[in-house]
Design a protein that fits this description.
Chain lengths: ~250, ~60
């Protein structure tokens, strides 16, 4: 009898399920982000200290949140590959890496643009900024390692090991603002000091970005499943031709 | 809409998000179409998996 994860691990079933879910998740992401943008630009007020610049928060914070969530997903998928040999685990890890890298870049870029008018500089080597930059390089390293090896099984395993080693970076990023004296502000959370007029647009944008990430990840996984099927068919085609030539 | 003296920082930030996310979407859609076209070309030539609809390999 198959467990739920075993049933979901079936690539054919994944393709059927994701084919149904993808337009729904993508549609929900679009609605949430458009509503979030409306709240961010037309409903939420300017900050009493930061002025209009606070509106960068509505894209910077969700990007930073996704940079870390994507890496947690890469690490979880890598664990699934190494320990449970889950058929879709490597597909999930490989699909999440470039998307995570893109959101990490956005977190760094928008943070830098927010920093210049607020701190007077685009960049400082403080613990939060530096650890997120290391996360970005880790994503690039995962992509470089995978593409440098021809043996896909070996590439998947080595990439998974590196991803699991790199997961130690997540608590460092999260708690860097508490452990060290940083220019980056401490985490305010969603419930504490952020005024509701700014908290709700931020929450809606965070939900929209999260849905967007899941839609992008699902699409990337579908592409990877198709790529592996194409590769399997090409190998079968070559084997068939060799057999015909040998007769 | 008046975004104050630092409007350029805000607009560049939002433009970057639109460009990067738009680029990601375009890349994923193009990649999906490329894989589907390759799969169809192979199937049109009569190449089949040993057990189509199997539960094992990806």
């Amino acid at each position: 009898m198959q467990t739920l994860t075993q049933r979901l691990a079936n690539p054919t079933r994944f393709m059927q399920l994701s084919g149904t879910l993808l337009p729904i998740v993508a549609g929900a992401a679009s609605v949430a982000i458009l509503y979030g943008l409306y709240l961010a630009f037309f409903v939420s007020p300017a900050d009493y200290q930061q002025g209009e610049t606070v509106r960068i928060m509505y894209i910077h914070v969700p990007s930073a949140w996704l940079a870390m969530m994507a890496y947690a997903l890469v690490a979880l998928s890598s664990f699934g590959l190494l320990v449970f040999r889950h058929p879709l685990a490597d597909v999930s890890a490989k699909a999440a890496v470039p998307i995570g890298a893109a959101f990490t870049f956005l977190a760094l870029f928008t943070g830098s643009l927010w920093g210049k008018p607020m701190w007077g500089t685009y960049w400082v080597w403080d613990a939060r900024l530096t650890s997120v930059l290391v996360l970005f390089f880790l994503y690039l390293g995962l992509m470089a390692l995978r593409s440098s090896l021809e043996d896909e099984n070996l590439a998947a395993k080595l990439t998974a090991v590196l991803a699991l080693v790199g997961v130690t970076l997540l608590p460092i990023i999260k708690f860097s603002v508490d452990w060290w004296n940083t220019l980056h502000q401490p985490s305010t959370g969603m419930t504490s000091t952020v005024d509701p007029s700014m908290r709700w647009p931020l929450l809606v944008m965070a939900i929209g970005f999260s849905l967007l990430f899941f839609a992008l990840h699902m699409k990337a996984m579908r592409n990877e499943v198709l790529r592996r099927r194409v590769k399997a068919l090409r190998l079968a085609d070559v084997a068939r031709r060799d057999a015909v030539a040998a007769e | 809409m008046d975004l104050g003296p630092h409007a350029a920082f805000i607009w560049i930030s939002y433009t970057a998000v639109v460009a990067v996310v738009g680029g990601l979407i375009a890349w994923l859609v193009a990649d999906g179409r490329r894989q589907l076209a390759a799969l169809k070309a192979l199937e049109d030539r009569g190449v089949r998996r040993r057990s189509s609809g199997d539960a094992g390999g990806v």
